[in-house]
């Protein structure tokens, strides 16, 4: 299957700082990428849909000013957690699709806010 | 998007076939059935997907009922490394919305 890479895989930051997570499709072009978060022992929750060259579409209840998404190219989308707080600590995962929406997922980024 | 219903957990003996059911009675005509699995602390891994016909790849087989209201994922010879949470999802836009999934435990 296609390869989607996330960076970093783990990050620890201080409260009040911002953290940027990158999601890259390595061997295909993705006009649409998706961002998820996952709490311990819970399922993945879709946060937003990222479309190349346009504004992201956020799911209900997700703060767009807290979670800034940029999809500047067909192979890169970024999620910036702004003014992070301990409750933002979570596992963040992106996915990118191709063909008949065979969405492939990155390996995830574990964010810890201290 | 349609929702799915899966058993919370299942066990399977190593080397035997694992059959994971999924109900999606409200699926619409242009929605695909997808299966993913997630091993602890990793991103979900794509397994297989289908629209109407049964599908098979190197990992698994997908059996979709004629009315498309349910499906079964078959892992033909389960190994210990197949222990994971398996998610059945219906979607037509690529935005995978995950339910609780089935926790499959393969036992020696």
Keywords, please?
heterodimer, A: 114 residues, 7-stranded mixed sheet, 4-stranded antiparallel sheet, 0% helix, 52% strand, B: 108 residues, 46% strand
Secondary structure blueprint with pairings:
The complex is a heterodimer of chains A (114) and B (108).
Chain A lengths: L3 E4 L2 E4 L5 E7 L6 E7 L5 E8 L5 E2 L8 E7 L2 E6 L8 E7 L7 E2 L3 E5 L1
Parallel strand pairs in A: 2-11
Antiparallel strand pairs in A: 1-3, 3-8, 4-5, 4-9, 5-6, 7-8, 9-10, 9-11
Chain B lengths: L8 E5 L4 E6 L8 E7 L6 E6 L4 E2 L4 E4 L5 E6 L8 E8 L10 E6 L1
Parallel strand pairs in B: 1-9
Antiparallel strand pairs in B: 2-7, 3-4, 3-8, 5-6, 6-7, 8-9
- What order do the helices and strands of chain B follow? EEEEEEEEE
The end-to-end distance of chain A, rounded to whole angstroms, is 36 Å
Give the tally of β-strands of chain A: 11
Return the string of H and E elements of chain A: EEEEEEEEEEE
Largest sheet of chain A: 7 strands, mixed
Rounded to an integer in angstroms, the radius of gyration calculated over CA atoms of chain A is 13 Å
Report the span from N to C terminus of chain B.
Answer: 38 Å
Helix proportion range of chain B: under 10%
State the helix count of chain B.
Answer: 0
Query: How would you state the average pLDDT of chain B, rounded?
Result: 94
**What is the global morphology of chain B?**
globular
Number of helical regions of chain A: 0
Report strand % of chain B. Answer: over 45%
Oligomer: heterodimer
- Sum up the overall morphology of chain A in one term: globular
Query: What's the overall average pLDDT of chain A, rounded?
Result: 91
Q: Outline the low-pLDDT stretches of chain A.
A: none
Largest sheet of chain B: 5 strands, mixed
Description:
- The complex is a heterodimer of chains A (114) and B (108).
- With 114 residues, chain A is an all-beta fold.
- Helices cover 0% and strands 52% of the residues of chain A.
- Chain A contains no helices and 11 strands.
- In chain A, strands 2, 4, 5, 6, 9, 10 and 11 form a 7-stranded mixed sheet that branches. A 4-stranded antiparallel sheet of chain A has the order 1-3-8-7, with no helix packed on it.
- In chain A, strand 7 and strand 8 form a beta hairpin.
- Chain A is globular and about 35 Å long.
- In chain A, 34% of the residues are buried.
- Chain B has a 5-stranded mixed sheet with strand order 1-9-8-3-4, with no helix packed on it. Chain B has a 4-stranded antiparallel sheet with strand order 2-7-6-5, with no helix packed on it.
- In chain B, a hairpin with a 5-residue loop joins strand 6 and strand 7.
- The relative contact order of chain B is 0.35.
- The chains are: A mainly beta (114), B mainly beta (108).
- At the A-B interface, strand 4, strand 5, strand 9 and strand 10 of A face strand 3 and strand 4 of B.
């Amino acid at each position: 299957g296609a390869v989607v890479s996330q960076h970093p895989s783990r990050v620890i930051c201080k409260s009040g700082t911002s953290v940027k997570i990158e999601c890259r499709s390595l061997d295909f072009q993705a006009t649409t990428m998706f961002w998820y978060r996952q709490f311990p022992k819970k399922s993945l929750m879709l946060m937003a849909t990222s479309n190349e060259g346009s504004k992201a579409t956020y799911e209900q209840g997700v703060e767009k000013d807290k979670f800034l998404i940029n999809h500047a190219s067909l192979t890169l989308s970024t999620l910036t957690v702004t003014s992070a707080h301990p409750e933002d600590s979570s596992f963040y995962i992106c996915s990118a699709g191709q063909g008949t929406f065979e969405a492939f997922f990155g390996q995830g980024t574990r964010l810890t806010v201290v | 998007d349609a929702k799915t219903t899966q058993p919370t957990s299942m066990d399977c003996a190593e080397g035997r076939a694992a059959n994971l059911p999924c109900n999606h009675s409200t699926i619409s005509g242009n929605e695909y059935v997808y299966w993913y699995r997630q091993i602890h602390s990793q991103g979900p891994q794509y397994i297989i997907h289908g629209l109407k016909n049964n599908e098979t790849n190197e990992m698994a087989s997908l059996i979709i009922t004629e009315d498309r209201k349910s499906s079964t994922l078959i892992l033909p010879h389960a190994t210990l490394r197949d222990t994971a949470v398996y998610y059945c999802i219906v979607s037509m836009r690529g935005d995978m919305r995950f339910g609780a999934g089935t926790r499959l435990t393969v036992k020696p």
